[in-house]
Amino acid sequence: MKRWVKMIRFIGGLCLVTLLGIAYISYLCHNSLCLAPERFSLSTRYSASASSSSSSRSEVPSSPTSTTKLVVGHASTVNIESVAFKEAYEMGFDITDRDVIVFLHIQKTGGTTFGRHLVRDLNLENPCNCPRKRKRCDCFRPNTINEQWLFSRYSTGWKCGLHADWTELTDCVEGALDEYEGLAKKRRYFFITVLRDPIHRYLSEFRHVQRGATWKSARHWCGGQEFTSLPHCYKGSNWTGVELDEFMNCSYNLAHNRQTRMLADLTLAGCYTGYNTTADQLERDRILLQSAKQNLASMAYFGLTEQQAVSQYIFERTFHLDFENNFDQANATLSAQAIAELTPAQIERVRQLNSLDEELLEFARQLLQERFQLLKRRDPHFRQNWLRMVHPLKSERIDGNSLV
């Protein structure tokens, strides 16, 4: 009898330990950090050996596509429906259905201001609810209580990690929204971002780090794992007071070519493995730059910090949504003053460290103009719409052919 009692107690103990283990794992796997890879499926969008930038623009899909990845040694994809620019313009954004805008916020590109425009300035029947003394807003679909149409810092928060990049967002966004809304379903994702002149952006990040910023809580999620052992350029809690030369001399400083890295599919280049080594660096750079160009071209929208009016016009015509307040073109005097304080050698060094971003921005400028001219030709009220945006900007001319 005693033996049976011991056996029952033993089995009961095993069951209790198992239940506690399941509960513990469930607790750790919040925010879709432990999603099984089986939820992803294959669909080819691009290869690492893609051709020139002009050909990549011509290959932009005009219909929703699945996002494809090569995960460090084996094939895997994220089966999410992402909407390209032409599809977004032709079909529009349906806030009442299953469409979601996903904002990829790159540091020091003006994304904070743009993000606030999204939650506070869009002219909607049911605007985002932004309570006072709270950083985030509730951007729920009409007649719902928890379905978000905007995935961004100021709506859902950093659900996929602090300043999540393209690799992180495409892996995480569907699961994060499923968990947030308590329901698994398929959505249409409209990826958007903002880019900035690489030299101005780099120097702005340098000043920010010099004041104590670190972003060390970023996840660096790639290929199904979090890279927590990336080396820091500084000792201690931050890099306060760093000088520019020291900032530039750190070979694994993620500020270098940040825009290219954050827009590229990092799994195509082995994620962060060997990130700060020189082995095959040229090939890695080529893969990342081509991937960044293709991902940018496949986005429903992107804007340029230096071209606020054009960026606003493209957003409004693409999504068929208007902003109540115009985008402000920031005065470039401070940036120009900061650059004027640098030596020619320092300026050249900054250019070298951000050569991929320089090429990416040139590609973006051309693509932005193509989109602007396309939308202008199709807009029967272009003069009226354009005047509304440039009226405060005396330096802009109304004739679209002479713009930027």
From TrEMBL:
<comment type="function">
    <text>6-O-sulfation enzyme which catalyzes the transfer of sulfate from 3'-phosphoadenosine 5'-phosphosulfate (PAPS) to position 6 of the N-sulfoglucosamine residue (GlcNS) of heparan sulfate.</text>
</comment>
<protein>
    <recommendedName>
        <fullName>Heparan-sulfate 6-O-sulfotransferase</fullName>
        <ecNumber>2.8.2.-</ecNumber>
    </recommendedName>
</protein>
<dbReference type="GO" id="GO:0017095">
    <property type="term" value="F:heparan sulfate 6-sulfotransferase activity"/>
</dbReference>
<dbReference type="GO" id="GO:0016020">
    <property type="term" value="C:membrane"/>
</dbReference>
<dbReference type="InterPro" id="IPR005331">
    <property type="entry name" value="Sulfotransferase"/>
</dbReference>
<comment type="similarity">
    <text>Belongs to the sulfotransferase 6 family.</text>
</comment>
<dbReference type="InterPro" id="IPR027417">
    <property type="entry name" value="P-loop_NTPase"/>
</dbReference>
<dbReference type="Pfam" id="PF03567">
    <property type="entry name" value="Sulfotransfer_2"/>
</dbReference>
<keyword id="KW-1133">Transmembrane helix</keyword>
<keyword id="KW-0812">Transmembrane</keyword>
<keyword id="KW-0735">Signal-anchor</keyword>
<keyword id="KW-0808">Transferase</keyword>
<dbReference type="InterPro" id="IPR010635">
    <property type="entry name" value="Heparan_SO4-6-sulfoTrfase"/>
</dbReference>
<keyword id="KW-0325">Glycoprotein</keyword>
<keyword id="KW-0472">Membrane</keyword>
